């Protein structure tokens, strides 16, 4: 008899939706044309690309011509940050950007933003203990020479939904020449994308976070916004992102995005209930467990995604706990997937005020479109036993039942 498997790492990557697979299959086999060509095989690929662009634009609330297809969300973030920093006529190079402090980025951004921003001398804006950007600190950092402000729509480690409209309002007032970018990779399946798009100049998404294929992303570039290209080659994507399109990946992304956005309310309610069941069960099952991120359950303060539970288990090393969970068929993580296996603790949790040791005791459980009650119940059965086993070795807090 096989054991129950529980995949609770959707924030790293979400399983491919059936709609995405069905859309992709013809372009993985018989329809193999290069959409940049002129013959009928190429024209068929071009039609599929154009239709996918229209579908993505409709879901995100922008015009088709504002959608720039990329290979990943990381590439979309890099194009936004480096393209905005390089577009300023009097700051063509890194030295000028460093001297002027032209890029501002939130302290809990994905490394795709933080490291790109650091390469052009960014100023990092702090967050509060819930992971929400400090608006007063942002105001203090803004000045007329700022070229870009990048604040993510929702955090991929603790689920904090950032006040993007308020961020944009302050940027428009204090740095009217600056562009506003939001990394919406974690947010798009669970918030209203057109509302986000309406507030910003640049918006990044990645297909595999909402049930599309890996290797597909997009950057919304609003009309009138100029970006310096990061890659050079052919003239694809209006010279903003050269290279032959992966048509199968693009049509898969469009199908998955349509499915995710049309079912958003239904899936958010179902998954939010599962998330609460998981979090409440683990908080009650053992002592020394702390939840991170904005408070749950307050409809007047919708500051949290319905999918993420980030918990700190006092006296437990998260890597050791994750190994025990993996043995029981449970997939979770210590933070962003690109940081897995690294010795460094979560930069997000430390930006929120946790010590390095505290951050090393935190585990992220993230749910998604395929999550089930059986998976959550399996986690609730396994985690307390794993904690008891680890704490027996270290002398940490006992289970609540033992208290």
Summarize the structure.
This protein is of the alpha/beta class. The chain has helices spanning 18-28, 40-60, 73-87, 94-100, 111-118, 135-141, 164-174, 193-199, 247-262, 264-285, 318-327, 347-351, 356-359, 373-394, and strands spanning 6-7, 67-70, 103-106, 123-125, 148-150, 179-183, 202-206, 217-221, 289-292, 308-313, 330-331, 362-366. Helix 3 (73-87) packs parallel to helix 5 and helix 11 crosses helix 14 (373-394).
Structural notes for this entry:
The chain has 403 residues and is α/β, with parallel strands linked by helices. It has two domains: 6-14 and 264-402, Alpha-Beta Complex (Aspartate Aminotransferase, domain 1), CATH 3.90.1150; 18-262, 3-Layer(aba) Sandwich (Aspartate Aminotransferase, domain 2). Helix content is 41%, strand content 12%. It has helices at residues 18-28, 40-60, 73-87, 94-100, 111-118, 135-141, 164-174, 193-199, 247-262, 264-285, 318-327, 347-351, 356-359, 373-394, and strands spanning 6-7, 67-70, 103-106, 123-125, 148-150, 179-183, 202-206, 217-221, 289-292, 308-313, 330-331, 362-366. The chain has a seven-stranded mixed beta sheet, with helices on both faces. The radius of gyration is 22 Å and the shape is globular. It starts with 5 loop residues before the first strand and ends in a 9-residue tail after the last helix.
